Structure formats: structure tokens, C-alpha cells
Amino acid sequence: MAYAPRMGTGAKRGAASTADRMHVVGLFAQKGGAGKTTLSLHFAVEAQRHGASVVVVDVDIQQSSAKWAQVRDADEPKVVLAQPAGDRPLAQILDLCREDARRYVFVDTMPRVEASAFEVAKLATFAVIPTAPHKLDIEALTPTVELMARVGLKACIVLNHCRPGSSVNAAAIRKLEGYGLPVCPALIYRRAVLADAFNDGRAVVEVEPNGKATQEVTAAWRWITKQMER
Predict the structure, then answer these.
(1) Is residue 200 situated within a structural domain?
(2) For residues 2 and 83, is the Cβ–Cβ distance under 8 A?
(3) What predicted TM-score, i.e. pTM, was given to this entire model?
(4) What are phi and psi of 114, to 5 degrees?
(5) Domain containing residue 145: CATH number
(6) Which of 77, 118, 126, 160 could pair with 35 as two cysteines, CB 3.0-4.6 Å apart?
């Protein structure tokens, strides 16, 4: 699953002005199951369907993003492996993405704040921190938020696994605001289609184009792009 530019020998010259605008979006979470992989892939598909050139880099040794790509009936978005999930360093893959004039690179990280997460944070241009709306999940964000502050990486929090019609969601938003980071107003609810789509390498927009889950993902990604462009 090595990555090579799509263009010929002139790619580097042609991509020079675009390279400066490449967004490297790292998805970070202390706890497993927060939704890093789900959101990485859904945001990647969302960005691609709006015309952006996208790569997903999987640095999680479980290689969930890479496994999704293996059963997907499409070549894009391309999913590649980086250390420790693969042999190539992330920095090298990002250089190739710049040569290839990619607009967004999503990095699906490992759970827990450790050396690999620190390396991703140093190379990223923006961070998305997903969390469930429950007390223990929110409290587990502290090391991740501290890491973002330590490396000076701009970040936002996305509330995932929300329960429709529950007051827990609003209470969670109030708690999350205490971290001092922007909290995405578009909530991602726990919907079966988010998991079902992964069975054959799809995203919700490709399963239910007009469904609620698609609307939620679209709204969240639209808001995140505005945060990045500020």
C-alpha cells in the first residue's frame, strides 16, 4: 500500500502553489472507540465528493482504515499506511502528497496519547478530537487537549455517538466548552448506517444520500472546513 504521486515528473513544479494549502487533518482520541476511523473516512469521502483531492493515512496498527479501502469498490480516497502501521514515515508520505497536489490528508491515529500521536500532531495543520457525550469519555480528553496545546496545533472537538432526543448531548457540549476549544455544533448521532456502510467500504452518503447521517456528516465537515480556513 505504498504511496506514489499520480502525476509524472512535472508534478512537483505543477503542485508548488497548491502544496502550501494542503491541510493535514489529524484525528486524535485517548480512548478507543471514539470514532477516529469512522470520521476520518467519512470526512475524506465528503471532501472528495466536493471536488477535493484526498488521501487518508492510517498510522493505527489495527489498520482499520486500510481494511475499509481493501473492500471499497473505488480507488479514491486513497488509503496508505505510515509508521507504526506501515514502513514509511508519515513525513515522507506527506511530502509525496504535496507533490501530488492533494488538498486534504486525513491521519487516522492510534488510541492513547503516545509517541506516534505526538509525531502526527507535530506534522498536522489541524486536529479533530472526537468524543462520545458521556462523562468518562469527556474526562479522557484532557491528555489529548494538552498535547494539542503543547505542540500549538489548532483543534476542535466533535461530539460523536450522540443519542437522539437525549439531554445528555446538551450537557456534554457545556462540559466540552470548558476545554477552551471550538465544539462542532453539528452532532454525529449513533446511527446503524454509519457502521453498516463500512461492511463493503462505503460511506453513509453512498448508502443513504439523503439520510440523516449524511446530513450530519456534511454539516460537521462544512463547519470544520470553516475552522481550518480562519
Answers:
(1) yes
(2) no
(3) 0.90
(4) -140, -165
(5) 3.40.50.300
(6) 160
